[in-house]
Design a protein that fits this description.
single chain, about 350 residues, alpha/beta, seven-stranded mixed sheet, four-stranded mixed sheet, 11 helices, about 30% helix, about 15% strand, globular
């Protein structure tokens, strides 16, 4: 593992971690059995998204690298190779934890050069994966964003987000906050093989009900729609109907894309579980990481038509970044407190 190339020393200011800052722990408890945690003290936490990215945001915060959700299609697998870690099982079980993420974020948000731009979380690996139950980084991160009234959004497959409901409501009083939950399908047999470390689709739908019941608008990213396995009309209908019944405000489909790192791991899984589909996938993704445009448009059209039928719609730009702030009791305003706002 090339930690030595990513710590202070010859690497200079470009180093990712401070010198001697990596501590490796193996926790022998049932929920973490087989998982190794590499605790690091990061040198920076707010990351700029590359200009060539298709993402609709510019800045991210990722307190973890690697993800015990173990989704076979995860596009972030390639990032593990930067540390000489395996992008297959290693990505699922070798979790890098940026233990100083909350304090580092607080410092970076206070820097004069920071202008209060929207920060997206959960867009690389899930910030509410199982490790968060142990390390509890997200409460401090949300508190830092709340205290600076900095807009942010969270995308997750993890039901652990419900732990932080009070903080999310507090943040919503100061700034725009958006919550999206990823629910690709409701097929439990498919879920067990492609997303083995995640809460079940039913558990995620129940989490959405809890969020919306608490006054938090929650969109659903129906991602990825998996060709030939999760894209039949019946599967799409069942998923959109379940999403609508959960109280989600929107549903947005995203077809599976297979970047280097994820592509090899997914193809190996496909060859083991659905060998008859390997050749079809080779043809479908012969042009690169993305499915053909005609296929993406077909899936999008079907999901949008179903969403309209069940009374929900696609996410409007920026709409999933809003939480309905709870009403405050009428009373005199505190004399010494001034609420920060950027919007």
């Amino acid at each position: 593992m090339r930690w030595e190339n990513l710590t202070e020393g010859p690497a200079g200011p470009a180093a990712l971690f401070g010198a001697g800052a990596v501590v490796t722990r193996t926790i022998d408890t049932p929920e973490f059995r087989g998982i190794t945690f590499h605790e690091v003290r990061a040198r920076s936490i707010v990351n700029r998204v590359p200009g060539a990215s298709r993402m609709p945001f510019e800045w991210t915060v990722n307190p973890y690298r690697g993800c015990s959700h173990a989704c076979v299609y995860c596009f972030a697998r390639k990032t593990h190779s930067y540390l000489d870690l395996d992008t297959g099982l290693g990505f699922d079980s070798q979790i890098v934890v940026k233990t100083n993420a909350p304090e580092l974020l607080r410092r970076e948000l206070a820097a004069p050069r920071w202008t209060g731009a929207h920060i997206a979380m959960g867009t690389n690996v899930d910030c509410y994966q199982r490790a968060e139950g142990r390390y509890r980084l997200m409460p401090g991160i949300i508190e830092a964003l709340r205290d600076r009234a900095n807009p942010f959004s969270i995308l997750t497959k993890g039901t652990l987000i419900l732990r932080d409901l009070p903080l999310l409501r507090e943040a919503a009083e100061a700034t725009e906050v958006g919550i999206s939950v990823s629910v690709s399908f409701t097929d439990t047999a498919l879920w067990r093989t492609v997303e083995p470390g995640t809460p079940s689709p039913a558990a995620r739908l129940n989490a959405i009900r809890t969020l919306t019941g608490a006054g938090i608008e929650c969109g659903v990213l129906m991602a990825p729609v998996i060709p030939c396995l999760g894209d039949s009309p019946a599967q799409l209908r069942a998923t959109v109907q379940a999403v609508a019944e959960s109280g989600a405000t929107s549903v947005t489909p995203l077809v599976l894309h297979l970047r280097p790192g994820a592509r090899e791991w997914f193809t190996a899984w496909l060859a083991e579980h659905h060998p008859h589909l390997v050749e079809r996938y080779e043809r479908m993704y012969a042009g690169g990481s993305y499915a053909p445009t005609w296929y993406q448009r077909m899936i999008t059209r079907q999901v949008h038509e179903l969403a309209a039928e069940f009374g929900i719609g696609p996410a409007r730009r920026g709409a999933s970044r809003r939480i309905t702030a709870p009403e405050r009791p009428v009373g005199p305003a505190p004399s010494e407190a001034t609420q920060l706002t950027l919007l």
